[in-house]
Amino acid sequence: MSSAGAGSSLRVHAMRFGPGQELLGSLQAFVEERRLRAPFIITCVGSVTKATLRLANATATNTNEVIHLTGRFEIVSLVGTLNPEAHLHISLSDSEGKTVGGHVLGDLEVFTTAEVVVGEAVDLQFTREMDEGTGFPELVVRARSQTDGSA
């Protein structure tokens, strides 16, 4: 299944999270509180002391390729969609500049700060539906209904 490209107006939300906050949960709470229907990460800079990531070699039948990181890491990239079944990828660099990245499962504990800009495609709605071809719930993009009360 593929979702056809669709245009939309853009609304931008900027926020900063502080030491000890869990970044993924904080972003999901923000999305829920604001009732955002098609949110995505525009940019993020900051640092974390923990992260749980699924690596790229995971498949629908072997999703256990997971790493748990602890230490001090710079967020060099955070991208993805933030609908209730968020799909985020992150790249982190350690004190020697070595990078690691993967699919965010959670446990992103902010070290000093996380400055995040979230976009919302205000005319669209993001959902996820199981894709038989990949074995994973994949993004479905729909026009936001004029009668769903969220426009």
CATH 2nd-level architecture: 2-Layer Sandwich
Query: Into which percentage range does the β-strand content fall?
Result: over 45%
- End-to-end Cα distance, whole Å, is 26 Å
Kindly provide the radius of gyration, computed on alpha-carbon positions and rounded to a whole number of angstroms. 16 Å
Low-confidence stretches: none
The main β sheet shows up as: 5 strands, antiparallel
CATH class placement: Alpha Beta
Pfam families: PCC (PF03479)
InterPro entries: PPC_dom
Protein name: PPC domain-containing protein
Organism: Stegastes partitus (bicolor damselfish)
Model description:
By secondary structure, the protein is mostly beta strands. It has one domain (10-143): 2-Layer Sandwich (60s Ribosomal Protein L30, Chain: A). Helices cover 8% and strands 57% of the residues. It is built from one helix and seven strands. The chain has one helix at residues 23-34, and strands spanning 10-17, 39-54, 66-81, 87-93, 99-121, 124-131, 136-143. Strands 1, 2, 3, 4 and 5 form a five-stranded antiparallel beta sheet that branches. Strands 6-7 form a two-stranded antiparallel sheet. The longest helix has 12 residues, at 23-34. It starts with 9 loop residues before the first strand and ends in an 8-residue tail after the last strand.
